[in-house]
Structure formats: structure tokens, C-alpha cells
Amino acid sequence: MTGREVGKEMAGRACRRLLLALALSLALLPVPLASEDGLLGPAADPHSHFRNPESCRQCHVSDESALEPDRFIPGADAFCLGCHSAEGLGVTHSRNIRPTDHPSGMTVPNDLRLDAEGRMFCLTCHNAHGPFLSPTRAFAAQEPENPGAPAGTGPAFRTYFARRSDPVRGFVPLCEGCHGKR
Question: What is the model's pTM?
């Protein structure tokens, strides 16, 4: 075997090893679950960007060193409106109002947040960091997102990132938080 032939054989082996390493590394990548309606894995969570620490200061009050996870900046809704259309907002509740200005001096429970100026905003009723899917319905007539789920996995229902809901009463518990039971 000539030197040239030996070189070609060594290059061929190196190429095969490289292809094998590439194939093995691709095989180890996580693959999200799929359904007829699309992905149901982490990639399908429309709020997955909230797990990026660089996003925190767009909603939360902070100083140079510390973030206050339970306090929100005025105008934090702007981050929500970057993806959500303003046309459908405020259908179920007004935004930018102060519950204390209500004639009855309404109080808001601690789990329903207000912005730093005491106004209602998207995150009063919605938890951007909450789960996208749940095994529990958010309301009685809700259809699962994965109707053809494999046996043993169970149905997955959208949560709408609501801070409160009930599989029978829907979002009524959310409203009752401030407005009381009727």
C-alpha cells in the first residue's frame, strides 16, 4: 500500500468516526412529544422565554443588585402586548384601574398581583410563569390539547396561565377573589 493509499484510508476512517459521533449526538437530543395539533413538549410553551433570567427586569421591580419577584413595574403589560393583541384584552376585565378607587374600596388578595402603582394589569389574573398545560381542566367543557395522547399519558389541558380556575366552575374562583361569591 502506498503512502497516498494509507492517507486516503485514514481520512475515510476519520470521516466515518466523525459521522458516527454526529449521529450519536443527534440521537441524544430531547425530542418533544407530538400530536396531530403540533408539539406538546417544552418548545410548545409560548411562555418558555420567561425562563430566561434576562427577561425578568421587563416585568419585575429591581434595583442594581436584587430582583423583587412579587412586585411588578408600571407598564409591565407592554411585555405581554409584545405577543398578545390588545384587541382581545380587557374583555373579561379592565386593566390599569386601581381597585382601591372602586366605590366599595375593593381589596385584592395577595395571590392576585397589582403593579407597583396598585393598578390591575395582565399579571393580576395570569401567572406568566405558570404551567402551559395541566392534567386538570380549566373549565368544564374544555377539550384536551392532545386528544390522541398515547395510553397512560392522560389528557393535557391549556391553563391560560390563570392564577385561579376550577374544572367545574371555570374561572369563577378568579373573579370571586376580588368580587366575592354571589
Answer: 0.69
